[in-house]
Design goal:
alpha+beta; 5-stranded antiparallel beta sheet; 3-stranded antiparallel beta sheet; 40% helix
């Protein structure tokens, strides 16, 4: 069994993520613990309001929602709803959440059996449940005990097998249907926004693009950009927009630019040493061999890390973003350190056709690519760059005092037709 614990700001978002799975036939609610009635006797509104009302007893708790998934080996086919509920009850009791209200959902959208548990970290008396190192301590002890008590297959590093529960959007059937598109995009947003630690719109898109979704502000002259708006679109297999764009305000949880900017700042403060696992995995890969870029990408993918390449219009690599699906960290290469930047990775990889092309570039082109990487890292837009160039190159008119030593002496010129007599 593999347990994955995530906390978030919105318990409604986590609840609606699981309920949307139920409406699609990809999941079912199999239990509601510490509720006043059985799960099938309550409305959806009552279920979520029970969680929200208890969460509001402590306004100081900012990340009060708790979303847990318990994942089992694909061969464990005998895990019926009752047995899964017994496992969930044992697990929640062992990690200190036995008295909390929680909902249990059995999902059917992956190759392995798994359940999702939705709860909160505020007790009925308003006190906060401490979750510091809960995954390493209480959860790990609970996993070992449950594997033994229920005769389950041991995890043995299976995290990398179940890191990506959400599948990319299938663009074939939904590219023309706005309602269906909105539901598909909403499901991706619910999962990504509540789990991954991105720190910019570019990093968010590095994750969303993996699921065929893109977030954008439109062109700098568009009404959306000028109004500070945001739209979401579906990408086809070629990475191009398809279907109808959807405004952020059209989604029930309103993942607007203002909301995301607040999320960026929170994620920057959340972890002082992001990407530690990413760095260790890359170092281990290079320690064992010298792969080319595509082999490195494949090895990282096996370890649950996506390497997103940023390419220039000419197809040359100028930046890398790493998405760790285990720790949910999203980091630019240069953010992790010089050895993880695009230039260093390309240099350390064995020779490829792309590297040969880069070596044959003129110094001017190489400089432009380096400037492009800096602009991307510093988030400097084209408009900002043009304004900076204009300021640096515009002529200045000086009207201050000039010392007489620097003034040009005037020559006395004789006027035509005038005589000294």
């Amino acid at each position: 069994m593999v347990a994955v614990i995530n906390t978030g700001q919105s318990v409604r978002r986590v609840f609606h993520y699981n309920e949307s799975k139920v409406s699609e036939g990809a999941a079912q609610c199999i239990g509601a613990e510490n509720y006043p009635a059985d799960h099938d006797k309550m409305t959806s509104a009552f279920k979520v309001n029970q969680l929200v009302s208890q969460l509001e007893l402590n306004e100081n708790v900012k990340r009060g929602s708790v979303h847990i998934s318990l994942n089992f080996h694909p061969s464990e086919k005998d895990l019926n709803a009752q047995k899964l509920m017994d496992i969930a009850q044992n697990y929640m009791s062992e990690i200190g959440f036995g008295e909390q209200p929680y909902l249990v959902y059995q999902h059917f959208d992956a190759a392995h059996p798994h359940i999702h548990i939705v709860t909160i970290k505020v007790k009925s008396d308003g006190k906060r449940i401490d979750m510091q190192n809960i995954g390493r301590n209480q959860s790990e002890a609970a996993r070992i005990k449950i594997e033994k008590d229920f005769n389950l297959i041991k995890a043995q590093g299976r995290e990398k097998e179940i890191y990506n529960e959400l599948k990319p959007i299938d663009t074939v059937g939904i590219q023309y249907g706005k309602i269906q598109s909105k539901k598909a995009v909403s499901r991706v947003l619910d999962f990504v926004l509540d789990n991954y630690q991105f720190k910019s719109l570019a990093q968010l898109n590095a994750v969303l693009n993996l699921y065929n979704v893109s977030a954008g502000r439109g062109s700098e002259k568009s009404r959306t950009f000028k109004a500070g708006g945001l739209i979401y679109r579906i990408l086809n297999s070629d990475g191009k927009y398809t279907g109808v764009p959807i405004k952020a305000s059209d989604f029930y949880n309103e993942p607007t630019l203002k909301f995301l900017e607040k999320k960026f700042e929170e994620n920057k403060l959340k972890n002082s040493r992001p990407g530690t696992r990413i760095k260790n995995v890359i170092r281990n890969i290079f320690h064992d061999n010298k792969p080319d870029l595509s082999q490195l990408e494949s090895e990282l993918d096996k370890m649950g890390i996506s390497m997103v390449k940023r390419l220039s219009a000419e197809g040359f690599l100028y930046g890398l973003t790493y998405v760790d699906h285990i720790t949910k960290h999203v980091c630019n290469g240069s953010e992790l350190g010089k050895e993880f930047s695009a230039a260093a990775i390309s240099k350390n990889c064995s020779v490829t056709e792309n590297e040969i092309k880069n070596k044959s570039l003129s110094p001017e082109i190489k400089t432009l690519l380096e400037i492009q990487e800096i602009l991307d890292l510093k988030k400097i837009s084209g408009t900002d760059l043009q304004e900076l160039i204009q300021i640096l190159t515009e002529k200045e008119f000086y009207s201050g005092h000039i010392p007489k030593e620097f003034k040009r002496k005037k020559k006395n010129r004789k006027r035509k037709g005038l005589s000294n007599n």
